[in-house]
Design brief:
52% helix; mainly alpha; Arc Repressor Mutant, subunit A
Length: 120
């Protein structure tokens, strides 16, 4: 089955690491394209392309201020991504608990815990 185009939905759009970095950079406040370019050390055409994709799927908003174009992350548009990924939080909490329990079990060979404890 072929993968959907990156412009088809937010899930495909954020599959690209540079787009996630751009979203993260824009989250605290709106920024101009040149700010994104300088902060993330990416080429301007590349940043513009990624911003177009993010704008198309609704993850960023654009505003003109004179000749300058400013972008910001649209937090409400990220909600479906957050809700979907939070479904797996229970799984990861369970897995981390299992790792912790296993690490704290006494070793079968020596009868001691595999984790070295500092003397008190």
């Amino acid at each position: 089955m072929a993968r959907a185009a990156t412009t088809s939905d937010p899930f495909n759009a954020v599959a690209e690491p540079r787009r996630r970095a751009i979203l993260e950079f824009l989250a605290p406040q709106e920024r101009a394209v040149n700010d994104v370019v300088a902060a993330l050390h990416l080429a301007q055409p590349s940043v513009s392309k990624h911003l177009r994709v993010l704008l198309h799927v609704g993850l960023v908003e654009m505003r003109r201020d004179g000749r300058q174009v400013l972008y910001r992350t649209d937090a409400t548009a990220l909600k479906p991504l957050h809700e979907w990924s939070s479904r797996f939080e229970h799984y990861w909490q369970h897995q981390l608990l299992r790792v912790k329990e296993r690490a704290e079990q006494p070793s079968k060979r020596t009868g001691e815990s595999p984790i070295k404890r500092r003397p008190s």
